[in-house]
Specification:
With 315 residues, the protein is mainly α. The chain has twelve helices and four strands.
């Protein structure tokens, strides 16, 4: 009889415990739903998950695996920007990437270069992309690189580029001059020091800078970014020449041409930089460096990009 009472008591205890657990889960579920409905919306600027670990704190506690961790942060930085570029539905503007909300790029690159202070690919990528997000962060990253790698003239090239993008031409000239002092620096550095002093923001100066970046790129992403910049400059030259021909035809005929084929004779006479000629596809359409055909804006009577096909950003 006593055993039956104990068994009944244990059963009641078990049932009570299970009931309490089920009730607890139900309360958590209902509370979670309630909080989800009433919590204020998270600002777009906080959409990304913050980094839980900092390179400075990891350094010295990774048992010699700092290089591997640096590579991980580096790869994550590439995937981070790549994912945002894929998901964006906006027309890409290489001069301003802030609409992508890439607030974690600098922390990722900062971690990579803290764990591996001689990680040149991370510095190069940061110099190429960060100026379109935050020029102060870009400068901070490259100055950190120079401090850790005073013998690397490429870092002075990157810093000079960032100052040039900021239109701080005296600072750019000073930086290129400092880079000239580094053993192994190419004549390009001396040339840029002079151009920053005398010309500043000319298109030809930009072409030289991006061509040098393309030639000296130590990773594919930096090379791709520099190439896109070169395509952009080439397209600007094309559009300037096409627009001039369109305007000349309009002045002569009183109307804007409907197709570029109407002005082929004028385009053949047009002079492009470095003796270049216009690109044509198999259908004799005039195309940009990414093989997308140029279009005519009939209202302005000027050349424009085919935004649904081109890889060149519209400024």
């Amino acid at each position: 009889m006593l055993g039956q009472i104990r068994m009944k008591s244990n059963s009641l205890t078990t049932i009570s415990a299970i009931s309490i657990i089920i009730l607890g889960f139900l309360c958590v579920f209902l509370l979670s739903n309630f909080l989800e409905e009433v919590h204020p919306p998270i600002p777009e600027s906080y959409a990304d998950e913050d980094l839980s670990l900092q390179g400075e704190k990891l350094k010295g506690y990774s048992f010699g695996a700092e290089g591997l961790l640096a590579d991980w942060y580096w790869m994550r930085s590439l995937q981070y920007i790549g994912k945002k570029l894929v998901n964006t539905q906006q027309n890409l503007n290489l001069e301003n990437l802030n609409p992508l909300n890439p607030r974690l790029l600098y922390p990722l690159l900062d971690n990579a270069t803290t764990l591996d202070p001689r990680f040149m690919a991370a510095y190069s990528y940061g110099a190429m992309v960060l100026p379109a997000i935050d020029k102060k962060q870009a400068i901070a990253l490259i100055e950190k690189g120079i401090k850790n790698n005073p013998d690397q003239w490429r870092l002075y090239q990157h810093l000079g580029y960032i100052y040039w993008k900021s239109k701080d031409y005296p600072k750019a000239a000073e930086t290129y001059k400092e880079g000239v002092k580094i053993a192994g620096s190419p004549p390009f550095m001396k040339s840029m020091a002079a151009k920053m002093t005398n010309e500043g923001g000319e298109r030809e100066t930009a072409r030289e800078i991006y061509q040098q970046m393309y030639n000296e790129a130590q990773d594919s992403k930096t090379k791709e970014s520099a190439e896109l910049r070169l395509f952009e400059l080439e397209s600007l030259d094309d559009r300037d020449a096409i627009t001039a021909s369109l305007q000349a035809s309009k002045s002569a005929t009183g109307r804007c041409p409907k197709t570029l084929k109407e002005i082929f004779p004028l385009l053949l006479k047009a002079k492009l930089p470095n003796g270049r000629q216009f690109r044509l596809d198999k259908k004799d359409n005039v195309i940009d460096p990414t093989d997308a055909p140029y279009l005519i804006d009939p209202e302005k009577c000027e050349a424009k990009l085919e935004l649904t096909k081109t890889k060149i950003p519209q400024l």
